[in-house]
Specification:
- This is HTH cro/C1-type domain-containing protein.
- It is built from eight helices and no strands.
- With 123 residues, the protein is mainly alpha-helical.
- It has two domains: 53 residues, Orthogonal Bundle (434 Repressor (Amino-terminal Domain)), CATH 1.10.260.40; 54 residues, no CATH class.
- The longest helix has 13 residues.
- The radius of gyration is 15 Å and the shape is elongated.
């Protein structure tokens, strides 16, 4: 995640740097550093930020689409996203069976998920 993306998403949430730092469990200096590009955004902070964005309350914007629907998944019943009814959070879970991320975890998986329609359609 770039510094400008981090800043954009903070503003999209309507949060100050101080309030976002509390939600992310980091110091205000860390948030400032992410936005200025002095520090790269760690993967666990990026995932928390996406989680907040995806789960914010919306006013009549419709229902979230599950990954198995968007991707026409054939192995959904073996997947953790299906088991925990978290099809809109598949990018957050390890061990999912999406054909594009199967066998990838951590940074590799997040690199793929950043561009996936499941996540981007919710941001």
């Amino acid at each position: 995640m770039t510094s400008s993306e981090f800043s954009y998403y903070r503003k999209k949430l309507g949060k100050t740097q101080k309030s976002l730092s509390g939600l992310l469990g980091v110091s205000i200096k860390a948030v400032q550093s992410y936005e200025q590009g002095w520090r790269s955004v760690p993967l666990h902070i990026e995932r928390k930020l996406y989680f907040l964005l995806v789960n914010r309350r919306r006013n009549g914007t419709g229902r979230r689409k599950d990954c198995w629907t968007l991707k026409k998944c054939e192995c959904k019943k073996e997947c953790p996203a299906w088991e925990f009814q978290a099809g809109h959070l598949c990018w957050f879970l390890n061990g999912t069976l999406c054909t594009c991320t199967a066998g990838h975890e951590g940074k590799e998986k997040m690199e793929i998920c950043r561009h996936c329609e499941v996540l981007t359609s919710q941001l």
